[in-house]
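Example record used in the benchmark description.
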Amino acid sequence: MVGTILWGIIGGAIVGILARLLLPGKQHISMLVTVIVGIVAATLGGVIADWLGVGDTRGIDWIRHFIQIALAILFIWLADRMFSKRTPPAVPAR
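Model output (C-alpha cells):
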C-alpha cells in the first residue's frame, strides 16, 4: 500500500514534469502545482487505461503512459490559465 502510494507520487511527478516540458511556451505555475497536476493526471489516466482495457499489457504500457501525459498536458494548460498571476497588458492612454 505504501509502495503503491509512493510510486504514484513519483510517477505523477515525472508525468507532470514531462507534460510541462512538452507544453509550448512558458507556464506561470509553481512546480508544486505541476507535480500535483501530474499525480492527478497519472491516476486518472491509469483508471481510463484500465477502463479501456489497455492499462496492463505485456512490456511497457505505452498507451497508458500516452493517456497520462496527454491528460497532464491538458490539466497543466488549464491550471496555468486558472492559477497564473499574469496581469493583462496595459492599455495605452489616449
